[in-house]
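Collaborator request, handled under Task 6.
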Amino acid sequence: MVQIHALLLIGPTGAGKTPLGEEMEKRGILGKKAHHFDFGENLRKAAKNLLPLNHQERLLIQHILLEGRLLKPEEFFLAKNILSSFLEQRNFKPDHLLILNGLPRNIYQATALTSLIEISYLVFLEVDLQTLKIRLKKDPAGDRKGREDDHEAYLAKKLDWFQRETLPLIDFYEKRNTKIITIKVNEEDTGQTLYKKLITLI
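Structure tokens returned to the collaborator:
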């Protein structure tokens, strides 16, 4: 696979990554056609046999989703297979931009992807716990319906996990000369308002 240029979205649950990713796909960014790769959504598609994976891989993904955990290092080939399938289905071209959402989520995954993907931009959607609680209740972007992992009891735990595991990606990519962009998210932000903020910063 030829190395792909990408923009990585990071932020805790409810920050607005998916609505912003969808908006970039719809409108393009940096003068390029953009493809929004939502890893969680594609994992769920793989579990439902909507992606070309074999039976054993599909069972493993179903098991991972049931446990609600990240891929182990020995399972990370699944992420690469799912990403390859996505790029093929989208007829991804060298001058297109890949929007990564949910992958990589820690330093190990980022390191494993360096030979395939060059992250040119990292966009950090910064939001505090109180604002997150309000956003998840209001659902301003309309993308939380049916999500069973949005209970308030899990929020602090998920935010803590994000700060420990995913936030260090900022330092990791800064050392690789990736442009880091921080967007402050408020309780009313949608994909459209986040996109407007992004284009003033990028």
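The cover message to the collaborator said: "The first helix runs from residue 17 to 27. The chain has nine helices and five strands. Please let us know whether this matches your experimental observations."
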